[in-house]
């Protein structure tokens, strides 16, 4: 039902909800689990692993540099840069670890919500009869 007020057309609450339900994926299939939240969690975990591999590789690549170029003033600067990057990469790794868990939790909660909401729709009478 639409209402016209001073030249403005408004859609009623019920009609708008029906339009949104009609647009739902699979026409009524609630989908969150295994979807974007789970994929985002996987991407965060992959980034965590790759960041740690890079951090270790950076450290390994600098092993023995101090002894090989002892006495050069650049060694101190090189160590400072290495330490800075190691700390930054460790922070990225740790943030990705946090995001992996947080996004997985959202995926689980959304999945549980989907099931609860899906079951609640079956309890709503359709045209006066139980589905």
What does this entry look like structurally?
There is one protein chain. The protein has 131 residues and is mainly alpha-helical. The chain has helices at 13-23, 36-61, 65-68, 74-122; strands at residues 2-5, 8-11. It folds into 2 domains: 1-30, no CATH class; 31-122. α2 (36-61) runs antiparallel to α4 (74-122). It is built from 4 helices and 2 strands, in the order ββαααα. The protein has a two-stranded antiparallel sheet. The protein starts with a strand and ends in a 9-residue tail after the last helix.
Give the arrangement of secondary structure elements.
Layout: E1 2-5, E2 8-11, H1 13-23, H2 36-61, H3 65-68, H4 74-122
Antiparallel strand pairs: 1-2
